[in-house]
Amino acid sequence: MKSTAALLTATGSEFTLAEIDIDGPAAGEVLVQIAAAGLCHTDLAARDGVLPIAFPGVVGHEGAGTVIAVGDGVTKVAPGDRVSLTFNSCGTCATCTSGRQSYCENFLALNYGGVRADGSRPLSGADGPVSGMFFGQSSFATVALANERNTVKVDSDIPFELLAPLGCGIQTGVGAVTRSLAAEKGSTIAIVGGGSVGLSAVMGAVLQECAEIIVVELTQARRELALELGATHALDPRDGDVAERIRQIVPGGVNYVVDTTGIPSVIEGLIPAVAVRAVIGLIGVPSDPTAAVGYNIIAGLTRGLTITGIIEGDSVPDDFIPELVEHYRAGRLPLDKLVKTYPFTAINTAVADQHDGLTVKPVLTFEG
Ligand SMILES: [Zn+2]
Ligand SMILES: [Zn+2]
């Protein structure tokens, strides 16, 4: 079958639209006509070589659309179903079977490997094989091949451009607070970075009824949006020591921190702002793969601190994505305030606008 895909041809390249061939669904696979696909920083990390993928390759991991065909053994979805595509997992390792599939022991191979689990390549272009199966979908394409496990059926008529980003960025931010940290009602939280994940964490903190929700963000428009979404304070880090200012708001220190920046000095700067027994959740991926955070172990011991990594908000997508859809429909998750749509053909403009801070969550739309 033919598909028009946004190809990455070399490290740091722009996206180039090209026609490629895509296999029909093998056993356990789902072929999807993509209607919308969100742009997430992880796509650009792959472009820039921070996450090694083979070139040419197709990324995109927040796809939503309609099932065209299913392979043998697929029972969860059928042709015509509206679906959201999310991260892939094996379903058989110890973390998957314990309901923590975002930490699947085979996560790297299944989401960044570029090939099917059996090593075959479902995508090919004019010059030979094309790396695919990015997050088990490679959805920057008119047609994408996913797996039953990372395909979530959504019965609601929520627009595709709002459904798409639930598959990664929104579920990561909301889930970080509601699931990974499970912040208690009345607790206090600082969220560093007001991009789509940080602002989703704000929405998660509102859902959890946190008493103080403090956002730290450089861009004024994003600080304003954070307040509109329910943050109680929005700090510009250039206005003075962030930890001190957080202590002025919450003298005992905050119970939780969510970092979306991945910048070690920023994370270290937050440690003096936390309460005893606080939990610091790390979401941001550092641009330097050897990055480390300095941490006084005795202070950490005596104050009972926890520093934890968070992947995909500890989501179990079959349960959590429909739950997020329900929150949106009930007016509790105004994710439309984060989304701006671009035609698929304008993908490079979407990338530039996100880079320049003009758009929080670009979502590409495909003509039906
Ligand atoms: Zn697994
Ligand atoms: Zn993502």
From TrEMBL:
<dbReference type="InterPro" id="IPR013154">
    <property type="entry name" value="ADH-like_N"/>
</dbReference>
<dbReference type="InterPro" id="IPR013149">
    <property type="entry name" value="ADH-like_C"/>
</dbReference>
<dbReference type="Pfam" id="PF08240">
    <property type="entry name" value="ADH_N"/>
</dbReference>
<dbReference type="GO" id="GO:0008270">
    <property type="term" value="F:zinc ion binding"/>
</dbReference>
<comment type="similarity">
    <text>Belongs to the zinc-containing alcohol dehydrogenase family.</text>
</comment>
<dbReference type="InterPro" id="IPR011032">
    <property type="entry name" value="GroES-like_sf"/>
</dbReference>
<keyword id="KW-0479">Metal-binding</keyword>
<dbReference type="InterPro" id="IPR002328">
    <property type="entry name" value="ADH_Zn_CS"/>
</dbReference>
<dbReference type="GO" id="GO:0016491">
    <property type="term" value="F:oxidoreductase activity"/>
</dbReference>
<dbReference type="InterPro" id="IPR036291">
    <property type="entry name" value="NAD(P)-bd_dom_sf"/>
</dbReference>
<protein>
    <submittedName>
        <fullName>NAD(P)-dependent alcohol dehydrogenase</fullName>
    </submittedName>
</protein>
<keyword id="KW-0862">Zinc</keyword>
<dbReference type="InterPro" id="IPR020843">
    <property type="entry name" value="ER"/>
</dbReference>
<feature type="domain" description="Enoyl reductase (ER)">
    <location>
        <begin position="12"/>
        <end position="364"/>
    </location>
</feature>
<keyword id="KW-0560">Oxidoreductase</keyword>
<dbReference type="Pfam" id="PF00107">
    <property type="entry name" value="ADH_zinc_N"/>
</dbReference>
